[in-house]
Amino acid sequence: MATITFVGLGNMGGPMALNLIKAGHSVYAIDLMPELVESLVREGAHKAQSLEDAVKTSDVIITMLPAGKHVASLFLGEPNAKQGLLEQLSNKPLIIDSSTIDAATARSVHDACRENGIDMVDAPVSGGVAAAAAGSLTFMCGGDAVAFEKAQPILGAMGANIFHAGPEGAGQVAKMCNNMLLAIHMIGTSEALNLGANNGLDPSVLSEIMLASSGKNWSLEKYNPYPNVMPTSPASNDYRPGFMVDLMAKDLGLAMENAVETSSKTPLGRAAHDMYVDKQDSGEGKKDFSSILEDIAK
Ligand code: NAD
């Protein structure tokens, strides 16, 4: 069993770290919010004096942070300000970054790891908070074969599907493609359910029909955006996240930047991006991303 420093105990990181504890790993809980640390300590995690202290005795560091700037600042530091963590890791732990970030930042952390003789995988996840709690996440990994081999048994305690997408940054590219598709089918599902409801159909019945037909997709099957069709989905819980509009807008921003860089046509991705950014601008960034149905139903 490994000693693991887990940084970022939010909606996803909290349940992921808990699964590592349940699997018998020794976990140091690190977050800016003390109540999240305390909550995991009550479940068996260790409290460290500081992040720097925790990593000294850790075999693995896992990060589950909001965006690229948080990951870069933690590992690489900031110009003329704080030192990056990488320079302090004389014990050379394996680094697993499971945050969803841009591939360029992931590659720059990989480069710095290589310079310091440290193995790293970028390993963003899919599945949402339910899969994080159930330990059934999908991990999409980027990095060399040695780092991937080392990461696999650790990721196995948190996920059901572990893919080696390719070299450094490839996990983030796979995640970016997946989340653009997720946004598109969430919006499409919302449009279909709203159209049916406006024609007098019961959204639960319409959902059942489409689930047995060619419109079947993950948003409809696992995360129905229409209130009270699926008791466990955020739609039946005042659109509490789940997966925030802010994070989906971030992911679509990464996809749109990359589409420009690689001259890839993404007309539906662009439309989805604009809808989520509008929602964010109207002050609804903290709602679950399935609340896009409310905008369609207005
Ligand atoms: P969150 O905002 O709930 O959690 C992030 C946590 O990181 C917070 O608790 C915050 O306090 C902590 N944090 C930020 N900077 C820190 C620092 N320097 N040191 C220590 N802690 C720090 O976000 P989340 O929903 O858990 O998402 C985390 C990542 O996972 C994001 O990149 C997101 O895009 C991705 N993701 C989320 C979902 C989902 O359904 N929520 C699904 C797949 C991927």
Key words describing this protein structure:
298 residues, alpha/beta, Rossmann fold, N-(1-d-carboxylethyl)-l-norvaline Dehydrogenase, domain 2, 2 domains, 6-stranded parallel sheet, 3-stranded mixed sheet, binds nicotinamide-adenine-dinucleotide
Fold and architecture overview:
The protein is α/β, with parallel strands linked by helices and 298 residues long. The protein folds into two domains: 166 residues, 3-Layer(aba) Sandwich (Rossmann fold); 125 residues, N-(1-d-carboxylethyl)-l-norvaline Dehydrogenase, domain 2 (Orthogonal Bundle). Helix content is 50%, strand content 13%. It contains 13 helices and nine strands. Helix 2 links the parallel strand 2 and strand 3. Helix 8 crosses helix 12 and helix 11 packs antiparallel against helix 12. It is globular. It starts with a strand and ends with a helix. The chain binds nicotinamide-adenine-dinucleotide.
Number of extended strands: 9
Give the termini distance in whole angstroms: 52 Å
- Give the cofactors and ligands: nicotinamide-adenine-dinucleotide
The CATH architecture of the largest domain is: 3-Layer(aba) Sandwich
The total tally of domains equals: 2
Radius of gyration, in angstroms, nearest whole number: 20 Å
Q: From N to C, what is the helix and strand string?
A: EHEHEHEHEHEEHEHEHHHHHH
Regions with little confidence, pLDDT below 50 for 5+ residues: none
Give the CATH level 1 class of the largest domain.
Alpha Beta
In order across it, which strands form the biggest sheet? 3-2-1-4-5-6
Structural classification: alpha/beta
Q: Whole-number average pLDDT?
A: 96
| Fraction of residues in helix | 40-55%
